[in-house]
């Protein structure tokens, strides 16, 4: 977890897509955790559901807007996690 001073327990909704949804077994879940950034949320859910994807291969959005992994997560936010997409 981040050691940022803004880390505090927040209740957030996490929405999963594609392989993240399959691994989690749900489309979305509400979690309460000590998180400060989108990366904190990703690491928490990755560990919880056994994913091994690095953040650099994935995308994140907060409240339906694409975000950086360092973006601040606030109580009540919805974090959307997108796995890597194969191109061709």
Helix content estimate:
10-25%
The end-to-end distance, rounded to whole angstroms, is 35 Å
> CATH homologous superfamily - what is it?
Beta-grasp domain
Number of helices: 2
* Poorly predicted spans: 1-5
Give a count of the beta strands, DSSP E runs of length 2 or more. 5
The total number of structural domains is: 1
Strand count, sense and barrel status of the largest sheet are:
5 strands, mixed
Report the order of strands and helices: EHEHEEE
User: Would you tell me the overall average pLDDT?
Assistant: 89
**Can you tell me the CATH topology?**
Ubiquitin-like (UB roll)
* SS content category: alpha+beta
CATH class: Alpha Beta
Write up this protein.
With 88 residues, this protein is an alpha+beta fold. It has one domain (8-82): Roll (Ubiquitin-like (UB roll)), CATH 3.10.20. The protein has helices at residues 19-24, 38-49; strands at residues 8-16, 28-35, 59-62, 65-67, 78-82. The protein has a five-stranded mixed sheet. 20% of the residues are buried. Mean pLDDT is 89; it is low at 1-5.
């Amino acid at each position: 977890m981040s050691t940022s001073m803004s880390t505090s327990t927040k209740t957030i909704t996490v929405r999963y897509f594609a392989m993240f949804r399959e691994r989690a077994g749900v489309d979305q879940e509400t979690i309460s955790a000590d998180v400060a950034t989108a990366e904190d949320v990703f690491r928490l859910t990755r560990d919880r559901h056994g994913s091994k994807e690095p953040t650099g291969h994935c995308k994140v959005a907060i409240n339906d807007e694409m975000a950086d992994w360092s973006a601040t997560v606030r109580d009540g936010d919805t974090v959307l996690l997108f796995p890597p997409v194969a191109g061709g």
